[in-house]
Amino acid sequence: MVESDTQLVARAKCGDQQAFAELIRRHSPRVFRLAVSILGREFIPEAEEVAQEVFIKVHHAIESFRAEAEFSSWIYRITFNQAVNLKALVRFRSPHADETVLYRAVTTEPGPDRQAATKQRDQALAECIRRLPEVYQSALRLYYWLGAGVGEVAELLAFPSIPLNRICIALANFSMTC
Amino acid sequence: MEPRETGIDSLLRRTMAAPVPSLPPDFEQGVMRELRQDLQVPDRYRRILLNGYGLISVVTSAEVMRGQGLDWGPIAVMILGPLTLVVAAARARHARIMKETA
Fold first, then answer.
1. Most buried residue, A70, A107, A129, B13, by CB count within 10 Å?
2. In this structure, what CATH number is given to the domain that contains residue A159?
3. Other C-beta atoms within 10 Å of A62: how many?
4. Which of A93, A119, A154 is at the close of a domain?
5. Do A11 and A80 have their domain in common?
């Protein structure tokens, strides 16, 4: 029989390491995806560190966790805060590193003019994305890069419904002015 | 969907296309190893500190009570009584949680 998170948390509170290991197995893929979606593809090793830090923090604080809340919501909130803090730190250390360089330059299109135009458009789009609130940036990466469904995006970011369509329209309007 | 919206949708799909990363298969073992290292040292010191405190308290209490002219019988009851209660409460809590999660 598969144990619920509540049962595993109760066992982990009693010091059952097997139960905590099961919680890690169950939640680590999503914790990692959320961390990656916030940090971006340039910081995949850092996202792994964030995931590790999150589970260490959760282990230290599991005694204080109250069963009224969902364990998954709790752990995603910790991940979000941890990753956002790390991102701010990284930006502070290297303020010129933005995601413009991360977006793939398309080289399959013919002609240098066309390539330059495409690259410029991609950079403008990346700049527009960078200006969005953190939660929307993360939503876009989860949906378009990591292939998460709308439901998963909403669950990970604790948004009842992420307005992806509206973000897209805003980006379209934005990129015309960038 | 508006054409402009469709355009941005396909543009986002194209620009964000990249291999999806995943955690190494031994991630969980790594975290557990880290936790064990993290817990071992403070746990050992905490236990030494707690045992030392307990021992000094027992000796001091016994000395004070003897000084007040009490016999060893009541002294033993007053020291061992609360200790037994603490152990029983901890065992009961553990048993209740195990029953809830069974």
1. A129
2. 1.10.10
3. 18
4. A93
5. yes
Are A54 and A104 contained in the same domain?
A: no
- The amino acid sitting at A176 is M
Verify that A81 and A108 share a domain, yes or no.
no
Contact at 8 Å (CB) between A131 and A99?
no
Query: What are the structural domain ranges in chain B?
Result: 38-102
On whether both A103 and A79 belong to a single domain, the answer is no
Contacts of A71 (CB under 8 A, 6+ apart): A5, A6, A9, A23, A27, A65
All residues at 6 or more sequence positions from A135 whose CB lies less than 8 Å from its CB, including other chains: A157, A159
pTM of model > 0.90? no
Where a domain ends, among A93, A120, A140? A93
Cβ contact A157:A80 at 8 Å: yes
A146 closest CB neighbour out of B15, B20, B98 = B20
Q: Are residues A69 and A133 part of one domain?
A: no
Q: How many CB pairs under 8 A join A and B?
A: 97
* Domain limits for position A104: 98-178
Q: Do B27 and A125 touch (CB under 8 A)?
A: no
Q: Where are the alpha helices (DSSP H) in chain A?
A: 5-13, 17-39, 44-61, 71-93, 112-131, 134-140, 150-156, 164-177
> How far is the C-alpha of B3 from the C-alpha of A166, rounded, in Å?
14
pLDDT digits 0-9 by tens, B27-53: 999 999 988 887 666 667 888 898 899
Give me the residue from A44, A122, A172 closest to B21, CB to CB: A44
Q: Do B5 and A32 touch (CB under 8 A)?
A: no
| Count of structural domains, chain A | 2
Residue among A14, A32, A104 minimizing CB distance to B97? A14
